[in-house]
Amino acid sequence: MDDLKTRATNREDRHKGTWDPFLLNPAGAEKEQKRTCFRIAQYLVTIFVGMAVLTSAVVAKGSLLVLSTLASPNSMRTSKEQQFYMLMLVFCLVFPNFLAFLKSLWRCAFKSFVTPNFKTMCFICAIECLVSLGTSVLVLVVMPQFDVLTNLFISGGVCLVPAILQIVFRLQAESWKIVFPLCSLVFTIAGYFLLGLDYYARVTSFVDRQDETNYMYIGVGVFSSLLISLCWWENPVQASNRMEETLRELEGFRDFVSCVSSLLRIIIIGGVYLLYYKVIAKTILWEDFIIGNEEYNLLQVGLGLLFLQAFCAAACHWFGVVACKIHAVRLSFALPVCCAGPSVVLLGMILFITESKTLAGVEEGSITEFCGSLVNLHDKNTTSMILLEITRSICRTSLNSHYEQWPFAMLALEGLCMWCGFLTCTHYVWKTKVQRIERTSQLFVRRLYESCFIDLSLLLNTKMKVARAKNQDNQDQIQNCVIYLCATMWHETYDEMLKIVTSMFRLDRYRGNPVKQHADCFNFECHIYMDDAFMDDKETGKRLVNSYVSDLINVVIEVYRVFTHKEPDEVSIIETPYGGRLVVVLPQGNMLFAHLKDKKLIRNKKRWSQIMYLYYLLGWKGYLSKNPHKLRYKKESMRSLDRYSDLSNHFIKAWDDIEIHNRKDISDDNTYILALDGDTDFQPKAVILLVDRLRMYDSVGAACGRIHPTGMGPMVWYQKFEYAVGHWLQKTAEHVFGSVLCSPGCFSLFRGSALMDDNVLKRYTTKATRASEYVQYDQGEDRWLCTLLLQQGWRVEYNAASDAYTNSPQEFKEFYNQRRRWGPSTLANTLDLLHSGSETVKRNTSISRLYIFYQMFTVGSSILGPASVTLMIAGAFQFVFQIAGTLSIIVASIPPVFYIIICFITKANTQITIAGIMSVLYAFLMTASFFSIIGDMVMQGTFLTPTGVFLVSMTIMYMVTAILHPEEFGLIIYGLMYFICIPSGYLLLTIYSLVNMNNVSWGTRETSKGEAEAKTLQNTLCDKNCQLCCWDMKIQVTQEVDNVMFQKMVGHPALLAPPLLINPQSTTQETALLQQKDDSPEETIEKEENKPDQDIQPKYNRGASISSSDYSSDKKSLLSSDFDDDDDDENYSSLAEKKKFPIKDWVNPVKKEFLTKLTTSNMAKNLKEQIRYVLLPNEDELYEQLEPTLNDILNSQLSRVGPEDIPSNSQLDELRDALTRHARQILKSHHKKRLEKKVKSAIEKTLKAPQVEQLNEDEKDFWDKLLERYLTPINDSKEHQDEVSKELKSLRNKAVFLYFIINILWVVATFFLQAIGNDVISIKIPKYFPNGTLSDEYLKVEPLSLMFLLSFAVLLLVQFLAMLYHRVYTLIHIVSYRSKEKDYIEKATSYDPDRDDYIEENIGAIELTVTSDDLQS
In what order do the strands lie in the sheet with 747-751? Predict the structure, then answer.
């Protein structure tokens, strides 16, 4: 309801100035807000992860303590049981090392292998051996000799070496914080001292089963703890920046070192176990390892405790990593880990108090009597065996002393000291700040965790200094990046353009003022590259822009109005060697460039547009940033010489200079290209999530998001489920097991350095000359670009949380033509990658031989698709019509053969029409096939048939997959549409695409409105088609712009403007130029020279091009020049000589599109917003007087001008003088003379017309050479075209033959198996009923069918498992994004100097404000 009222208020305000106050408000233009459901989900995930960390840590520690108690020689278990539990302890130590070995071996074998430095490897392995020795001795030798409480407390002593290194290296940022490691050292030593006193008290007071041998074990335990503490030596060393070369070298071959050290640790664990218990204690009896059926309880308890300890330790480590990645370091990581030890004690006390009564036969009384009676329970309580042993272990403490029980307090103090030492040694963890998404290696030092000390291992392993972002105070260490949004357009409609332009405006609003630092540390520019933007006017022969350009301009103006409630402030029109360029300053100051391509001057189509912007943004602009001295124009030429210059003028005029200053600090690795289509719709979040992927891994060359097709109709429904399955299963499997093969050009982020790598961009410019090149290069350019990246060693990733929406084909013909391009291109690029598989595996660490095999398997499955569909249809025939299997295969093969013949002898449109008819018929057959499978299960009396199990399991799998994608769950309803269209998509479409492989036209959006309807400078008043007798007559009455007399007759307002003056910088006197006749450039210049001097307003050459880049922080000189209070009349009096240049025919029509800004209604609205912009919120009183006064003056001065008419130049000059004079008076009365220049700038900005600019010589020279070298329009000779056509047909014939001969062989093999009969060749499978009973009958299945079914099932299962893995990490990324999401706060309604979240901005235009996080730098 509030939104309705707000829109109504805004509409009424607009209605006061115009009779046309209505807006086209695009979806998504509303301001961004944090969604409550996501906030709640974030909190729930944080709590769940914290509880998981705490629970798994408590269970892991408790299981280890129980195992050590059961394995103790002082326990009541038999020697065989003690030996078995000791073996379980050994496995607990081995398990994490075994996991580390497997992971390292996998990475060495299938990822990357670097030859290690022998000296460094020996050093690391020696330390790991000492650590393993200490761990084995402490856990296997010492802990079984102690009671359970001592075992719990003694592990806290492993902080010794980290505390000492912190003190030695003085790693504390503040000197006083050295107290923490000092206290840790003191607490740990005090704990060991109290441990000795406690055992002295036990021995002297004759506590049960305590003797002087315990002193030796205490000494061994202290020494073992010291060895274990060497495990985390690398953390303080890397934080102190010592041994940098060694550690950097170690990172290269850490996998191999981890593989070797894990094996050494396992060997040492086994060696300690055998040495002590076989040689020293001599308790190992090999026959005791044989466990009979009567000892099932022993096996159950031992394996259960082993599983709990190993699994929970691994889970605790994983959840701890997740907690750090979702930025819940304190709540979900540090707090639960620190509370793990006390929680074990608390849980033990609760169990002891509540469960001790279950020990039947114990005496109730004093603690000594209670402990003494436990000896008699050896054979009485099997179910409470664990509780019994834990209780007896506690009875070995001073609590069971017959003399004094107060020494037990020393044991409690020991635990407290050890715990405090642990906390103070890891105090830095509580202050750890991480980026939104961090690699595990950036959070933790070691890949291996110590399962026996899982809580201490996690905190001590947390890096003391995160590599990129230590905290918010040092946010400048996060790498800044620049993002170039590059949208390619090819005959998009108005609504499609509306989506992409709205998305760009949303990103501008999210980014905010580019002068300010943003929390996400990025700047961006928007570039639109429009193919086929020009046409020849049929009447005048002039080269003009077509209606697509007009639509784009109208979209930009309309979206600008929606976001700001006013017209675009700063617009420039530039002639370029490739056509033209429009430059628009977005509401927040970011830039939008629209590049208009003339196909007579430059190559059209998408790939050449991509080459165009890649060379421009990466090549040319990168060259300028590295060589600013190479520019031929001088820096002072970048300065504004306009009398009425303002801030936005500076942004355009000095754009190259700003770019050179800022781009030089941004490497090519942090320069990103966001490839877009002209109809893509996305949110800022989607872009930031893709940036996270590239920031996280330096080897990632590209990342794509989740593409959602939009539209209506059956074809869109089919594509919705097809895209969903492709992203849910196929792309996630590629991401997890290797690398994504195709990053779609409609929404993908590319790393600049990856595109600039050898054999990527340079080869991407290759012009197709052979038939195979036409198919691979131009039919699927985005897939080919990804293939080049993969072959060079770059990784391509998929981010499921980054959503983008794009229009999909809604017509059957358009869909088939689109897939006719995609199908052969996909096959060609995949085969190219497989062909170079051995070389790619060597270069690309993400691609392994197993992944190459996986891709071979998927390609084979897709090739056999037509045969599989044919056989499925044959099965339907066999069941429905009760015909023989051989005959059903023959019948099912007739339609594909018929369609192949049709595709060879008829035209494409006829092929598509017949395919549509056959698709409908096949849909009925697929429905029959579905019911035939169900019918077969009914006839067999069970669904446990191969086909039935496959169908049921696939249905369950898709349902689970949809549930795991809750926002896309509704797409599951389109699954039925997808199922019945399988023959059309996998049989007919395959045939159509292969047979028409020789057709390399684009196939979609081939119509050109620009050529069909000439867009001239005429306003049609009447357009009628009449018949007179037998004659057809067309009557058209137009309002011509070059007929002044006609304009007077119809009452056109602006007629007295001077002739057109062409200057590099137009002024507002040119606002009526389009009501005048279009003079030639020579005539215009001549008229201008003969004009009286007093009528000429000074104009100046900008001299610099309108270039682009990010401009982030260093603009103080720019801002100060704008807000300087000094009068600029002196500069005005010394203006430079005017420079004139001719303009082309297309410029004036484009300029006319933007002149709606100068209508009376728009000027009143713009003036109000501009005045509000220049005044601070605490100047409300001044605004309340200034704005109405200036508005009244504007209305009075233009009272004779209609609300939708444009005033003449003389009227604008009078209006400017009047507004400036009255504004000066009001400011003087309020003693605000310092604001005079700002208000004057606002007035001039309101009255300023679009600017006609000239490209500087440097950039013009670049474009000339680029066009000559790579982008000259292709004009192949007739002979070459004929030769290519022959090659394409030959390639088509070969591909069709090879493709379909494989399918025919598969069908023929199945046919002969059917002909031979199931009794001769078949696989017999036992038949089970749903209740589990076995039938006497067998299910007979053909070997080929079963093999294919099992293969496809395995493929789906692998993809499903990959999806589960990918879902988990997608959830982590989403939660981490939400925890660091930009806060959208309301703007201050009054000025408060203490507020640091206030910035000066257009209140009427901007609906969100940069927070304090954005201002930190």
Answer: 681-682, 795-807, 700-710, 747-751, 671-677, 481-489, 522-530, 591-597, 579-585, 571-576, 1251-1254
Element of type H or E holding 1025: strand 1018-1028
Task: Enter the tokens of residue 1324.
Answer: 């017999």
Distances (CA, A) of 329 to 49, 326, 451, 1369: 11, 8, 20, 17
**Helix and strand totals (H; E) in the chain:** 56, 17
CA dist., res. 1119 & res. 587, Å (int): 17
Q: How far apart are CA 1296 and CA 992, in angstroms?
A: 10
The answer to whether residues 1068 and 1209 touch, using CB atoms and an 8 Å cutoff, is yes
C-alpha to C-alpha distance for 128 and 254, rounded to whole angstroms: 13
Our CA angle for 314, 317, 318, nearest 5°, is 85
Q: Are 222 and 157 in contact (CB under 8 A)?
A: yes
d(CA 93, CA 445): 20
Q: Are 611 and 618 in contact (CB under 8 A)?
A: no
CA distance linking residue 178 with residue 229, whole number of Å: 19
Round to whole Å and give the CA distance between 111 and 795: 12
What pTM was estimated for this model as a whole? 0.82
Which of 1021, 1086, 1095 is closest to 1056 using CA atoms?
A: 1095
- Secondary structure (3-state) at 546: coil
CB atoms within 10 A of CB 1131: 15
The pLDDT, as a whole number, for residue 215 is: 85
Task: Output the CA–CA distances (angstroms, integers) from residue 107 to 9, 206, 600, 828, 833, in the order listed.
Answer: 63, 56, 52, 29, 21
Under 8 Å between Cβ of 1185 and 1098: no
The token pair at 986 is 């996998």
Q: Which of 1167, 1170, 1244, 1235 lies closest to 1212, judged by CA?
A: 1244
The closest of 1225, 1167, 1233, 1160 to 1198, measured between CA atoms, is: 1160
Listed in sequence order, the residues at least 6 apart from 519 whose beta carbon sits closer than 8 Å to its beta carbon are 1380, 1382, 1411, 1413, 1414
Beta-ladder partners of 345: none
Residue 676 phi/psi, 5-degree rounding, is: -135, 155
Report the C-alpha gap between 668 and 621 in whole angstroms: 11
Largest CA distance in the chain: 132
Q: State how beta strands 571-576 and 543-545 pair.
A: unpaired
Q: How far apart are CA 1388 and CA 1176, in angstroms?
A: 10
- Helix or strand or coil: residue 816? helix
Helix ranges restricted to H, 156-230: 160-169, 179-204, 213-228
* Nearby residues of 3 by Cβ (< 8 Å), 6 or more positions away: none
d(CA 848, CA 1067): 63
d(CA 1130, CA 1141): 27
722 contact partners, CB below 8 Å, separation of at least 6: 978, 985
Question: For residue 1069, what pLDDT is reported?
Answer: 36
CA angle 701, 705, 707 (to 5 degrees): 135
**Displacement of CA 441 from its chain's centroid (Å):** 20
Question: Mean pLDDT of residues grouped by 10 in the chain (1417 residues)?
Answer: 63 63 63 68 88 94 92 84 91 93 83 77 91 93 89 86 84 73 90 87 75 84 91 82 73 84 93 90 79 77 92 93 88 92 88 68 62 61 69 77 75 90 89 78 83 90 61 51 93 92 92 80 92 89 91 92 85 92 90 93 92 93 79 44 39 54 76 94 92 90 94 91 93 93 94 93 91 88 93 94 92 91 91 91 88 91 89 80 83 92 92 93 85 74 69 87 91 90 92 90 63 44 48 47 40 38 37 37 36 35 36 35 38 38 85 84 82 77 82 83 81 87 85 82 84 87 93 88 90 91 89 70 63 64 70 88 92 81 44 34 34 36
